[in-house]
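User: Teach me something about this protein's shape.
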Amino acid sequence: MHLAPVKVPAPVDGLATAPGERQAVLGTVGVPHLVVLVDDVDLIDVIARGKALRCDQALGPAGANVNFISAGPRTSEWRMRTYERGIEDETLACGTGAVAAACALAEWNLAMPPLTFWTRSGRRLEVRVRKASAELYDDVWLGGEARLVVRGVIN
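Assistant: First, the predicted structure itself:
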């Protein structure tokens, strides 16, 4: 799926990071996403730490989704776990979070897209972005399996 251009993610002044959280930036891909680089996503208490970061005053009253990422088995593969605002819990995957993470990794010079993100569901998301300027990523692509999980009617 082709997405709209994305502003370059930026550090958050006053954000309270914890031990093992190596870097963090805030980007917006439809909604705000805090991308936090950690040593190992499997060692993070995503619900407790995600909620604390999601509600951190430095992010403002609306807060942000929180995407924890760590290196995968290859330089182009990363693991990701997401705490989503509104749901207020860990979700199995977040496509826009993967896009924000790809932009963050490029900004940190840790990996260059195309990148693969392995999510909590065990499924992968593929992201490709191109840096158009110092402020913007364009040619943003997101791919992965899509599944219908619920069908309903609201009156």
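Now, about its shape. The chain has one domain: 2-144. The mean pLDDT is 96. If you'd like, I can walk through any region in more detail.
User: That's plenty for now, thanks!
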